[in-house]
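Can anyone check this?
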Amino acid sequence: MAPVNDYNPTPHIIPEGDNATPLEVVGGDCTATEKLVIVMCGLPGTGKTHIANRLARYVNFFLAMETKIFNVGEYRRELFGAKLPAEFFDHANEECVAKREQACDAALKDLLLFMKQDGVRVGVLDSTNSRRTRRDHIREVLQELKCKVIVLETIFDKEELIEQNISNMFSEDADRDAAFADFKQRRENYKEVYDTVDERDGSYIKITNNQTFVVHNARGYLPQKVVHFVMNLHTLPRVFYLSRHGQSEYNLLGKIGGDAGLTDAGREYARRLADFAHNVIGMEVKKDEETGEETRTPCPARLWTSTLRRTKETAAFIKHDKISTFKWDNGDEVEWIQFQGRARRNLDELYAGVCDGLTYKEIEQQYPEEFKRRQEDKLTYRYPRGESYMDVTLRLETIVLDIERTREPILIVGHQGIHRLLYAYFMGLPREQAPYVSIPLNTVIELIPHAYGCEEKRYLLLSKEEMLKDGQDEPVTSMPVKEKAAAEQVRKDAEKRAHAYSFDVMNPPSF
């Protein structure tokens, strides 16, 4: 902050102070009173809940706008029970129609109360809303908010996509077939009275088969952010893998930042990661239901690294085999180069500015005030002439959009600070916890996003016992005292969610 002196008696003082956070990650170019309600619409099994959850997560994490989903199905289950047969959704049954309307009105009531709060910006009503009369009723109720309303309709008219989407909703158990058939009948009941969205619904976004997008009268900062995000989203199953680079020379010395190469241990991890990529990430395993026999066939996979030397060296041993026939959505066939490297500046480690190349102890000695400020708020602290976690959040938005739209498995070889933020985003953690997430060396983290969260597995490829020194014991003084307990809880929660694996990558089990 500029000091007051004779030369500058009235300095420009920004509200955020010395560690100014980019506007784009604290609400963007948006007035404090601008609010938006998104009304989901579509037949059962079209990915509405998946889109609603992904969208709410994006707005919360990257735009720092408080967002909440009101799922009418949850209200219905609370009011009338969890397991309702398809007959409950028969529109000829007036009693059941009245009960479903009761659940919708209960959700609408809570949505109104939420949106009237100060600081609240976005609300999502997640339901089929299949009839125009229902959507007209919703719009009439929302009029008192005097906010923007967008109807977001999802459509699947390809039978194979419908079957796949519904199939992904049910676990493998004895009642799966019966539940699957009942759900399809529920869908047919809704289909009989379904009214597709058109201009009479006001502003809307219509998504067909995750391929065709129609946007009508969506104007303003928030609506355009929503449009941009959903056009990069799909509801198909996908998986991606986070790996830090192998141990670098700076890791060994306890230095932060820099552009050092790998140590011998780092190169050994790189070799093991290459085997893991070939045998696990780039391999599809299919099991014959009758014989139990497994077959392995190569599947297209992607590789992203930062532009820094240590990530490129970590990916250097990964093979780039060719898959001769790969078909895009538009029908074009291309020759796919497996794990074709893509170095991305957005994935570079948080830049430590004048502290780049120093140890934490050296920072404490040479820049005691900076060290103290970092202790007080690790999330927003910005290194002199460097970056903060909030700055990195801004440049990771593009990466997240690419992950959301990509359908092939992705291996991302990056850095601790980068993976902390990506992990926090997909695992639903608050941004404040991101700087304390455990992202250890020599470990691959597998993440599988789905409609209700994200599954996680961790694969240890090189243990500490195989390394003389890993240099990754971050000094206690580098962590704010008030955050130690919270950070430890984050670590314990991650251990509960994750399944850790250690195995011979030359003879991997089926995953």
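Reply from J.R.: I decoded it. The longest strand covers residues 148-155.
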